[in-house]
Give the backbone structure.
Amino acid sequence: MQELIRTRCKQGWLVITDEYIRVELSGNLRQQTLYRSMLTGVDSKVAGFPLFGLGGGTNLVFHGQGLERLHADLVKPKMAQEIVGMLQHPQN
């Protein structure tokens, strides 16, 4: 299993591999996982604009089948854009 992306988010770490999307919560005590085979879509919304040299943030919501949702808040905007592009247009 290859780790493709690991980036900070409000909850802790957002990790994307070729098999799953995972949010590792602060303290690594808990984690939330959505398998990529179950992914039906991803939404992004600007949550914070760049201010005083800080890069701002984007909230990501990964949708699974049914009501399953995985939230990663305040991801760096450029990284969020890369994630959305990668998941909407997978390389097969």
Summary: The beta strands are 3-9, 12-17, 20-25, 31-35, 39-48, 57-64, 69-75. Helices lie at 77-88. The mean pLDDT is 88. The chain has one domain: 3-88.
